[in-house]
């Protein structure tokens, strides 16, 4: 939507189109901060059109108001947090970076550990000729759509691509989605170039499109077997019980993927009748959903590790006493939500065939 409005405002500058562009971008900001990446390009385009007197001066104020209206859902949350905490700076930091992602968002170096596995996951999008079409599209973009539009589209592509390749988070591949849109746009231009050359090229492009539909599902389904036959052992530092990692990530369809549900049921039974399970967001929601929907192990407490850490920082003695009153279980053997001095007094063990690690005080067996 943004790209169509952007191209439209360049071709036929109207303040209404510019305002709608900024409204949609503001609405997208209410969904995710990725909407901020192309915003500087949009602002540059409007300023340039204003300087050339192709847009009226009131465009600035109307577009600003439209952006605020679109982003109002998000802005209200920021204002609400600022009022509750009395700290505007902290509210803005939370809105832009979350609780702990500022170093990752502002990172300027490549993180090869994350990039290796995420590049493999991103490559699953390219089991088709889209890159070949995209390269041709970038090469002929200026001739096809004009220098200004081509420059704007390339600038957005570079901004989004640079952001994602140096963003060191485990789910880095998900932030490649905007770049995929720009690659698809370039590929459509490349296909347009080819189909206008000759009937033979038209058939070639059509064959490429048909392969793009038929080939990926076959390869996705075969990847787990191919990796097994090649003897490649893929594992992750944090083991997730019952999940076949290769199948989970390589095969897009998930109608028969029940590993989270199976894990949640087993974990709740192990922590019964009145244990506490400390976990991150990945495990929290499956555990909570299964507990509520199936009324399983109602006496088990499910706590986000971040919440425990926050409570501990506020009142360490009270939180420690509360944790000692109930058996404490964790999914990963890493107790990064407890301070180092507390770690000296506990051990972490997992019995054979169990999915949870039990945290025990040294020498007490409880």
Enumerate how many helices there are, as a single number: 18
As a whole number of angstroms, the C-alpha radius of gyration is 26 Å
Global structural class: mainly alpha
Beta-strand residue percentage: 5-15%
Helices and strands, in order, run as HHHHHHHHHHHHHHEHEHHEHEE
User: Oligomeric status of the shown chains?
Assistant: single chain
Q: What's the end-to-end separation, in Å?
A: 58 Å
Let me know the largest β-sheet: 5 strands, mixed
Contiguous low-pLDDT stretches (5 residues minimum) are: none
Fraction of residues in helix: 55-70%
Across the major sheet, the strand order is: 2-1-3-5-4
| Global morphology | globular
Q: What is the average per-residue confidence, as pLDDT, rounded to a whole number?
A: 89
Number of DSSP strand runs: 5
Structural features, described:
- With 366 residues, this protein is mainly α.
- It contains 18 helices and 5 strands.
- It has a 5-stranded mixed β-sheet with strand order 2-1-3-5-4.
- Helix 9 (130-145) runs antiparallel to helix 10, helix 9 crosses helix 11 and helix 10 (147-165) packs antiparallel against helix 11.
- The longest helix has 31 residues, at 199-229.
- The N and C termini lie far apart (58 Å).
- The mean pLDDT is 89.
Give me a quick take on this structure:
Helices cover 63% and strands 5% of the residues. It has 18 helices and 5 strands.
Helix and strand layout, with pairings?
Blueprint: H1 2-11, H2 15-29, H3 39-51, H4 59-70, H5 72-85, H6 88-97, H7 102-105, H8 112-123, H9 130-145, H10 147-165, H11 177-195, H12 199-229, H13 245-250, H14 259-271, E1 276-279, H15 281-293, E2 301-304, H16 305-314, H17 316-325, E3 328-330, H18 340-343, E4 346-349, E5 357-361
Parallel strand pairs: 1-2, 1-3
Antiparallel strand pairs: 3-5, 4-5
Helix pairs in contact: 1-2, 2-4, 5-6, 9-10, 9-11, 10-11, 14-15, 16-17
